[in-house]
Amino acid sequence: MQFFRKLFGLLRPETPPAPAATPPAQPAAPGASTPVAERILFVWQEMLDGQSQIAGYRLQARALDKRNVISGTAIRAALLAENVHHAGGQRPLLISLTVEQWQTADFSEIIAPQTFILLSDLESDPAPQQRLAEIRAAGARTAIHDHAAGADSGDWPLDLVLFAFRKTELATQEKHLQSLRQRPGLLLVADGVESWAEHRLCQRIGFKLSIGGFAGTRDQEAPPGKISESRLVVLDMLNQIRSDAELGALAATALRDPAVVVKLLDMANSPLYGLPRKVASLEEAITLLGRDALYRWLSLALFNIEGNDGRDRTLLVLALCRAGERLGAKEALFSLGDKPEAIFPEHREFLRRMGHRTTLDYLHAVSERVRDETGLLPHANPGLMTERDLTRLREVNVSMGIMLESTSARLLGPGPLARLTPATLVDPAAVLTWAAASVTTGPISPATRASASRRPG
């Protein structure tokens, strides 16, 4: 402990046991003041971009003695000793200061072309616009917190806005980001990002840089390698379902991989199905699940085996669309069930890795890529959607549809069927929402499944 105290200059000399005499204190000269030694520790944090590269740094000063307030003169001297002028000449450097520190010292010597000054308490300043103009006049760039970038900041000279990522609801943040993105050249930075999945989410919704603990951790990505037996089993089962193979043949294929067998039995015995007894045989589990549910799970499992991060699923979609385009296809139909993340843990994990909150968010991203990178016209056919979802998907789809199993009201009552497909068993009154949706979002076409006739009721 004494070593660390010496290191930071905190170890005081021991008091002599019996001092012989204490010389009288000399009176201080008129007007003189006792200097206060301020020990300052700088915290450097990386700012990462969309390529996971260090694009800049955020620099914060901390007083080793928390009872002390760091003066503008002291932090200026410490910044000079830290050689921040050189760092700010290489890449963006965000330096946090208080309004008082900025006003009581001359920081011109530490300012470089990419130095950003963040006034942490700007909202308490009676003249915030004037203060930002002073920073610009000194040759630095300006930065503020997101809560200070209100409606009255439209004329402020702004270069960077720092968002507290975890302190604001995501929907509110997205709306604020959308308004700020209208300002050309404004750098939007997310602070408090704790995982790589959150970093990817920040990139998707409009942030350019991220700051947080995630930067010190490893981004887990699947190493390249040969196709595993599990993936081959899943591929074979998908092909069998497409060719309408017998359930016995599906069960025989699944038996090649114990992991697939265990998963199918776990799904069949899920409380979702509400069975009074345990399903013990693989054939019974496949019969209970049905071809549709089995196909959906196998499709998800295909790109989640062995820790795959999911990016190749999007690449596969694009590859299929380009192949269809060469064969003369004009439209890409995205047909999916309602909120698969509510049932399949694998899909929730996939969305997390891809930086999306919901399947509809991922559908929007893939539709946008198909529209921009292929010659096909996207047509989304998901489950029930909110008005916001309809409006957002309309941006990247020429038309949309909704899967309709039946309009029978009695199917909405208690029972396993209603629990399995809550979105596709639509109350007849809900059909009216399609007409209303078409007014604002474009054509909505209800579609029926051929498999509906095979279901009970």
Describe this protein's structure.
This protein has 457 residues and is an alpha/beta fold. The protein has three domains: 40-216, TIM Barrel (Alpha-Beta Barrel), CATH 3.20.20.450; 225-308, no CATH class; 311-457, no CATH class. 39% of the residues lie in helices and 15% in strands. The longest helix has 21 residues, at 282-302. It is elongated and about 80 Å long. The N and C termini lie far apart (76 Å). 27% of the residues are buried.
SSE order and pairing:
Blueprint (H helix, E strand, L loop, with lengths): L1 H6 L32 E9 L5 E10 L8 H10 L2 H7 L2 E5 L1 H5 L11 E5 L8 H10 L3 E5 L14 E5 L5 H11 L6 E5 L4 H10 L3 E3 L17 H14 L4 H8 L3 H11 L13 H21 L8 H16 L4 E5 L9 H10 L4 H15 L3 E5 L5 H8 L4 E6 L11 H5 L10 H11 L2 E5 L9
Parallel strand pairs: 2-3, 3-4, 4-5, 5-6, 6-7, 7-8, 9-10, 10-11, 11-12
Antiparallel strand pairs: 1-2
Helix pairs in contact: 8-9, 8-11, 9-11, 10-11, 12-14
Number of structurally distinct domains:
3
Distance between the termini: 76 Å
Shape: elongated
| CATH hierarchy class name of the largest domain | Alpha Beta
Named at the architecture level, the CATH assignment of the largest domain is Alpha-Beta Barrel
Please, what is the average pLDDT? 75
SSE order, as H and E? HEEHHEHEHEEHEHEHHHHHEHHEHEHHE
Fourth CATH level, the homologous superfamily of the largest domain:
EAL domain
So what's the oligomer here? single chain
Q: Portion of residues in helices?
A: 25-40%
Count of strand segments: 12
- Strand portion, in percent? 5-15%
Q: What is the CATH topology of the largest domain?
A: TIM Barrel
Give the low-pLDDT segments. Answer: 1-37, 222-227, 418-426, 446-457
